[in-house]
Amino acid sequence: METATRPMTSYATPTFPDKGPTSEPFPAEAVPKTKAEAIQHTNGVVNDASIATAVSDSNATIEHDVNGHKDAYLPLTNDHRTESVAGSINHDHADGILSPATKLMRRLEDTKDLIVCPGVYDGFSARIALSVGFDTMYMTGAGTTASRLGMADLGVASRTDMKEHADMIASLDPTKMLIADMDTGYGGPITITATVNQYIRAKVAGFHIEDQLLMKRCGHLAGKKVVSQEVYLSRIKAAKAAKDKAQSDIVLIARTDANQQHGYDECLARLRAARDLGADVGLLEGFKSKDEARRAVQDLAPWPLLLNVVENGHSPLITVDEARDMGFRIVIFSFGALVPAYLAIKAAFERLRTEGVTGVHETEISPRSIFDVCGLQEAIEVDEIAGGEDFKGGV
User: Fold this and answer.
1) What number of CA atoms fall less than 13 Å from residue 274's CA on the CB side?
2) For residues 137 and 20, what is the distance between their CA atoms, to the nearest angstrom?
3) What is the mean pLDDT of the chain?
4) Nearest-CA neighbor of 11 among 22, 21, 25?
5) Which of 139, 140, 142, 236 sits CB 3.0–4.6 Å from 180 for a disulfide?
6) What pLDDT is stored for residue 55 in this prediction?
């Protein structure tokens, strides 16, 4: 009886300058040639929970360069962040191969850019943000609570709700950056540690954690109450320790809501203490005036601050240009998708109730148009790469 001989498979092992061969070779014939193929290869590792856990446990992250056909596990340490992966390549090229967390950290460290983030509340709003060219988004807790649970932002969204939502949004395009709300951390130091690890595995680029009571509410409602400075700082310590143990560049944003209850000076004291504990960015929620916002940037300089813009909220409207002039480094528009969606959907449904039509027929938006925004073409490419024939006749 003849024994079948298995053909040898040739592997192409990518290398990086000064780092030698990577530990994740792939068959030469499988080198990614399209964006869809590269994302498919990355998703196969980054977004699989069991593999992501193993990656986290081995202090590694996936890095890729579509144009250079490189995929590698590289340790994500503080040394990795400060030592140019590419002492020999330019910043833009380096930016293209880093994890979302490291991209965000480097943008804060290496540039003076103002990072503008639309607030997204679900997968569809995130897809729209990506389609118009944003490379950084903010997952709003209020929007997540409204869209996922249909409830007001009164601390009812659980850690699982928030983590799963962030994981889904971050996975839509692993090359882009997502900053996510982490509310109070959902418990004491042990729970906060677990939550930070979950956000890291979900490939969230940054998160903010605050000092409200566990039964918190939206930062732009009245009646907020905050924990003591000691408890708040214990949350920051736990988050920082979890980040350091995981050797992750995830950006830790220390948020305080104390302005409403205790005033500006208490906010300043809390943020300075959080900064001294190693928080990467500060967030003072609920500025009472534009002058107060400008003063905060000056009082905490050169530490980067994030500005939360909530139109018709408790703070004055500050435009992107004004935020840039004041010196903020990140600006998020928490209700930037939720309110326009509410207005448009309500108008369509009111018309349906009174006229029997929604008005969609008066636009050029077809089902195909919506699916295109949601990655239809990339899905077709994935099927073709795998040898599928389901879409050969078109869609």
Assistant:
1) 33
2) 34
3) 82
4) 25
5) 139
6) 34
